[in-house]
Amino acid sequence: MPGTNSAEAMRVIVGELPDFPHLPELPARGPGADLTGRTASLLVDIPVEVSPRGWRLAERPGRDLNRARSMLSSDLDVMEEVLDGFRGPLKIQLCGPWTLAATLELPRTLNVAIADPGAVADLTASLAEGAGAHVTDIAKRVPGAQLIVQFDEPVLTDKVMCEAGAGDGLAVAALLISLGARKVHLVELNPPVVSQRQVEILEQLQKQGLPLRPDAVLESQPLRLKDAVVYHQCFMEQMDTVAAFDLIFSNSVLEHVEDVNTFFGRCFRSLKPGSRMIHCIDLGGHGSFEDPMPPLEFQIYPDWLFWLMSPPFNRATRRSVGEYVQFAKSVGFTNVVVKPTRLADPAYFETVWPRMNRRIRRAGKAEAAVVEFILLADKP
Known about the structure:
Blueprint: H1 6-16, H2 35-40, E1 48-51, E2 54-57, H3 63-82, E3 88-95, H4 97-103, E4 104-105, H5 117-141, E5 145-152, E6 160-164, H6 171-178, E7 183-187, H7 196-207, E8 218-219, E9 224-225, E10 229-232, E11 245-251, H8 260-270, E12 271-282, H9 303-309, H10 321-330, E13 334-343, H11 346-352, H12 358-361, H13 365-368, E14 370-378
Parallel strand pairs: 2-4, 3-5, 6-7, 6-11, 7-10, 11-12
Antiparallel strand pairs: 1-2, 8-9, 12-14, 13-14
Helix pairs in contact: 1-3, 4-5, 8-10
């Protein structure tokens, strides 16, 4: 909203939206009153400060953070006074994790936090904790309110996303479109699952607090995919799109891809210049012969035996972290970043290391111990 007077803004909102008021944002008051600054002031154990370009992560709390927290506290005092005795829905708007990570710089660098998977994970966890405490505080201030938390993601607005290997779920597409994405392309060899059961699952996720709407992806009569969801029934390696997507992502897919070079090549071709791909890659064995075993037992078999046990596309391909990085760089990606998210238990790893396949051992212990990691890469 325009202006700098929070009391006046709150009274205007209550006057115009008496049945569904919200806590106003007045960015004209300066740093700390903006979407990023207000939300960052709620982060737990992650201090921030003002930089020449906006906000960045800081080593310790300082006056910028104190000013943002003071401003928010004052706004909440005003809201509590104006809404005294109020009963009904009350909307609280916060910056979502994607936008927060894209607008906070890392310390001692010009890179934004979204370039560091570890920083993104820490921010998301901290935001969840801080938002929870924020909601608890407001519930005490306005006890009759039914609180609705809205996470705004302007960084996703009007973007075109692509999920490679979407499986049979529509939850990610529903979430992205609900947060402002224009289209979500799903690349999946199996036909789409469009059923009442799919609707029920999305409704359950919505009730659990995910900011998604089932009607973002599904028409009700007749039940079908909406135009915002574009389905490609093929492998990513078969896609022929050119400079179409702002982001390509996958979750536990690339470990099954036999031709990673072509996969990454099609990702590079399909992305717009200046865009990014993000992949979560599970290096643990999870084929039909490996599920009951510890995560790295499948790495002990010689290649010929592993190929007999596990047919293509139904197995982890046993590549190392470094191989994925080299494939990404070879097709033209830059700023390739790897962040391990799960490592083998050290004691277990020492027992399996001497028996591991020689090809994996050549990668070294640090790589061989990685069970899961996130890979980010940019298209120049």
